[in-house]
């Protein structure tokens, strides 16, 4: 079981996620992001805006995603 925080995964807080695989970790992070979006949490909304900018370039998004996967694998 590995642990990463919301902030490590591109978010805005110290909430910890625990998962066996990177895919599970990404899904937990996504679910948390949706909850924070629905609550209108300003810091998470800012992080989401930054992520949306990154998504405009598939290459940049792929590099970011691989970096997070490598960080997960190093834990």
Structural account:
With 75 residues, this protein is mainly alpha-helical. The protein has one domain (2-74). Helices cover 65% and strands 11% of the residues. It has three helices and two strands. It has helices at residues 22-39, 42-55, 58-74, and strands at 2-5, 16-19. It has a two-stranded antiparallel sheet. The protein is globular, with a radius of gyration of 12 Å. The mean pLDDT is 95.
Rg over CA atoms, rounded to whole Å, is 12 Å
Q: Kindly state the mean pLDDT as a whole number? A: 95
User: How far apart, in Å, are the first and last alpha carbons?
Assistant: 10 Å
Structural class: mainly alpha
The total beta strand count reads: 2
Oligomer description: single chain
Structure annotation, total helices: 3
**Unreliable stretches:** none
Percentage beta strand: 5-15%
Short account of what is shown:
With 75 residues, this protein is mainly alpha-helical. The chain has three helices and two strands; from the N terminus they run E-E-H-H-H. 65% of the residues lie in helices and 11% in strands.
